[in-house]
Amino acid sequence: MIEGLEYIGSFAVQSGQAIVGDPGFLEDWETNEGEEWNLEGKDGEYSFQGASATTLENAGTMELGANQAVAFPTGYGDGLYPVWAKFDDKGRVTEIVIEFVGDEG
């Protein structure tokens, strides 16, 4: 348990990376289905190959598209990770934590 946060579920990862974005932009998402795998020049593109290029090549800003999402590598790569939330007094989510690497101590 993370102090002050409530466990709300798990986050499954199958590509060693994750993105966070507004689902309202999903219609713009490029799956790259049927394209040859090529990450060259795709850093920051709002697509699967763009997310892959971004997480492999950047240690800083990991924005995709026109601020449509952020991409980042996950702790141990593929796996199932716990998700925690903090709520205000009206029940609105104020913070989300995806615990990619837990307390190893």
Low-confidence stretches: none
Number of domains as seen in the coordinates: 1
- Strand line-up of the largest beta sheet: 1-5-6
Q: How many runs of DSSP E, i.e. beta strands?
A: 6
Largest sheet geometry: 3 strands, antiparallel
Strand-residue proportion: 25-35%
> How much helicity do the residues have?
under 10%
SSE order? EEHEEEE
| Spatial gap, N to C terminus | 14 Å
Q: What general form does the structure show?
A: globular
Number of helices: 1
What is the SS-derived class? Answer: mainly beta
Alpha carbon gyration radius: 15 Å
Mean pLDDT: 90
List the helices and strands and how they pair.
Layout lengths: L5 E8 L3 E5 L26 H10 L5 E2 L4 E5 L5 E9 L5 E6 L7
Antiparallel strand pairs: 1-5, 2-4, 3-4, 5-6
